[in-house]
Write a structure and sequence with these properties.
- By secondary structure, this protein is α+β, with helices and mostly antiparallel strands.
- The chain is built from three helices and five strands.
- The chain has one domain.
- It has a five-stranded antiparallel beta sheet with strand order 1-2-3-4-5, covered by helices on one side.
- β1 and β2 form a beta hairpin.
- The protein is rod-shaped.
Amino acid sequence: MKRNKAREICKYISGHKDGFTLIEIVVGIAILAIVMTAFLTFFAASFRLNTAVDNNSEASYLARSYMERIYDESVGSSYASVTAKLTDASLYDFDRIGSTEEFDKTQGNYYIRIRFEPDTDGLYKVLIRIYDNGSLSGGKQVAQIEDVILIQ
């Protein structure tokens, strides 16, 4: 009885050709590969864009925070006092570029340059530029902020 049942099952399986052929499987895999390639390209592009936006946001935050610090230091202080605090190693540790009114330093992956331009009656135009890759020569400018600050 069991042998008859097994023979019936074998005849049923061998009689029906409802499976997939090799060509159908290869075509299905090819279509799947094309679709996946499109999605992977999209994900790679969005990852690069997201990384660039993160870097620009971080650089903008860095520029704004230094502008706020300079503004805080300038309240009730002289220009000489503000620039002395910028070059103080325990506070900001900027380097003065020659005898100019420019200061620079490298912080992480960013190169920061601050320029003071005297205006009239104690007003100074403060320009902060942030470059990536930690140097002015090798990096591109990713953030800039400028403001006019009253320094006594």
